[in-house]
Amino acid sequence: MHQVCHRLHELLTLLNSRLPLFSVVELTSSPGPGKWSRKQILGHLIDSAVNNHRRFVLALTEPEPLVLDSYNQDAWVQCADYQHTPLEDLLSLWTTHNRQLIRLIERIPPAAHAHRCTFDNGFEATLHWLVEDYAVHLEHHVQQLLDRTPR
C-alpha cells in the first residue's frame, strides 16, 4: 500500500500545480454531449473519494463479504453543480479528502488487505484491489484533466 500512497501524493502535487494553469474555457468546456468538463471530472473525483472512503472503512469494520452499492455518477455530478463551483474550492476539497484517504490507507492492517467485497453486480474483489483500483481510476482521470490535446 506504500506505493499507492506515494502515487496518490504525486497526483495531488501534479494536479494542484497544473490544473490552475488552464483557462476558464478549458475548465468548463464539454468535449461533447453527455461528456463532462474538466471541472465536472474533478467533481467526479471528489465523489469517488467520498464513496471509496466509505467503502474502505466499511471493508475494515463490517463482516465479510461486504456488499458494495454502486452510485449514479452522473446524478452526483449534476446535483453538486461542480460546473459552477470555483476551481479553488474543488481542488481544496479533492486534495483534503485524498490526504485523509492516504492516512486511512496507510493504517490498513496487512491482514485486512484480503477482506472480501462484492459489488452489487456480483463482481468480487478484496480491499487491496479496491485501493489499487481507486489509484488507477484517479490516474486515468488526472491524465484526462491535464491532457492539452483538443477535446
CATH architecture: Up-down Bundle
Q: In this structure, how is the largest beta sheet organized?
A: 3 strands, mixed
> Tell me, what is the CATH class?
Mainly Alpha
CATH superfamily: dinb family like domain
Mean pLDDT reading: 96
**Overall structural domain count:** 1
Task: Encode the helix/strand succession as letters.
Answer: HHHEHHEEH
Q: Note the total helix count.
A: 6
Strand order of the largest sheet: 1-2-3
Helical content, roughly?
55-70%
The count of β-strands is 3
What does this protein look like?
The chain is mainly α and 151 residues long. The protein has one domain: Four Helix Bundle (Hemerythrin (Met), subunit A), CATH 1.20.120.450. The chain contains 6 helices and 3 strands, in the order H-H-H-E-H-H-E-E-H. The chain has a 3-stranded mixed β-sheet. The longest helix is centred in the first third of the chain and has 24 residues.
